[in-house]
Amino acid sequence: MSDRYLPSLRQFLTHPSGTEGPDPELVFLIEDIASACRAIGNQVRYAVFDGLTGTAGEVNVQGEAQKKLDVAADETFERICASSRRLAALVSEEREEITWLKEPEAGDFLLFYDPLDGSSNLDVNLSVGSIFSICQVDSENASDVLKPGTRQICAGYAIYGPSAMLVLTTGAGVNGFSYDDRTGDFRLTHPGLTIPAETSEFAINASRYHHWDEPVRAYVDDCLAGRRGPRGRDFNMRWTASMVADVHRILMRGGVFLYPVDAANRDTGGKLRLLYEANPMALIVENAGGAATSGRNRILDEPPTSHHQRIAVMLGSRDEVAQLEDYHRRMTGN
Ligand code: AHG
Ligand code: MN
Ligand code: MN
Questions:
Q1: Which among 92, 80, 245, 276 is positioned nearest to 159, based on CA atoms?
Q2: pLDDT at position 62, please?
Q3: How confident is the model at residue 19 (pLDDT cuts 50, 70, 90)?
Q4: Using CA atoms, how far apart are residues 314 and 182, in angstroms rounded to an integer?
Q5: Domain match, 13 and 55 both
Q6: Model-level pTM greater than 0.85?
Q7: Lowest mean pLDDT among 11-15, 253-257, 265-269
Q8: Domain-located, residue 195
Q9: What's the domain count of the chain?
Q10: Suppose 74 and one of 108, 115, 136, 248 were both cysteines; which one would form an S-S bond, judging by CB atoms 3.0 to 4.6 Å apart?
Q11: Do residues 52 and 43 lie in contact, with contact meaning Cβ atoms separated by under 8 Å?
Q12: 164-169 and 175-180 beta bridge pairing
């Protein structure tokens, strides 16, 4: 066994490389989120023994059938994080309304989360995850939760895969922590994650080809044309139907992920949700040197209009995201 000393999440959060000390209340909240993720990882692992497989019989605000684990994971976030003294509100994929925990005061925290992402993978025992984002309450209009992604002070996800990991940014780089169930700690195994600027791998649900707009169709056609096509090289393709797993792969080896607005989802503005899917992943990807766009605009600049708002998402390796923006500019004239 290696004698390499790997800092725990707490050691990492309380001894940052910068000069300014961290806000202890923020450290506690991130630790609570990590505890919630640890508990959710166990719920996923033991679901088959604990009667937590299958659907819960409810349809959530997104119009999607909730799984028992979606509901359990959502409750776990609340149970573990709600006593955090400066946490004012929870905004969850699985809750129609905002859950206010206290009278909001300037500087209090707002927690946005997708408790279980990729839950269609639960039935087939493939990777799922949790996504979260933290913003702060403003002095004016304290009950406003509609913050653009640039206002996030922390974003992260947990992946429940062959090993469980927590990937985190507080706005200065991206760090990955692996869960060691022998000690109960997340340990810093992947410091300073970066996404290579170039890639030859893309991820998209290709069954929606006939719904896609022209720029997306042309981009994918050109990738598939390989070395004899306009891109001049062969591309590989992966799609896991779990954004956490696809983004994690991109952080490990590069790539680009697309969930565009198309003819079948245009009425709802796309599939993925801005506040608790697109924004946290965009902050992580940008902090790792990648880029995140809706095709036309930087995701982090998008002003939210409602807390369950959806958006087109294209993110990953910088040069490839620039290509996608170029296809959109050329083919739609804006
Ligand atoms: P969720 O399980 O939280 O509803 O999210 C599922 C999302 C995302 O994780 C994934 O990239 C995408 O939906 C998969 O969509 P398709 O079923 O169209 O592939
Ligand atoms: Mn999701
Ligand atoms: Mn979900």
A1: 245
A2: 74
A3: low
A4: 38
A5: yes
A6: yes
A7: 11-15
A8: no
A9: 2
A10: 115
A11: yes
A12: antiparallel
Q: Are 284 and 169 contacting, i.e. CB atoms less than 8 angstroms apart?
A: yes
Distance from residue 159's CA to the centre of ligand 3 (Å): 13
Task: State which of 190, 212, 231 marks the end of a domain.
Answer: 190
Give 115 Cα–ligand 2 centroid separation in angstroms: 8
Cα-to-chain-centroid distance, residue 244: 6
Gyration radius of the chain over CA positions: 19
* Residue 24 alpha carbon to ligand 1 centre in Å: 34
291 φ, ψ (degrees, to nearest 5): -140, 155
1, pLDDT greater than 90: no
Q: What single-letter DSSP state applies at residue 278?
A: I
Structure tokens at 154: 């922390």
Ligand 1 pocket at CB < 6 A: 64, 93, 114, 117-120, 205, 241-243, 259, 271
Which residue matches tokens 């640890």?
Answer: 38
User: Residue 334: pLDDT above 60?
Assistant: no
Which of the four pLDDT bands, split at 50, 70 and 90, describes residue 3? low
Closest ligand to 242 CA? 1
Residues whose CB falls within 8 Å of the CB of residue 118, separated by 6 or more in sequence, listed in order: 126, 127, 128, 129, 240, 241, 242, 243, 244, 245
Question: Phi first, then psi: what are they for 276, rounded to 5°?
Answer: -125, 10
For residues 183 and 243, membership in a common domain is answered with no
Extract the tokens encoding 23.
């806000």
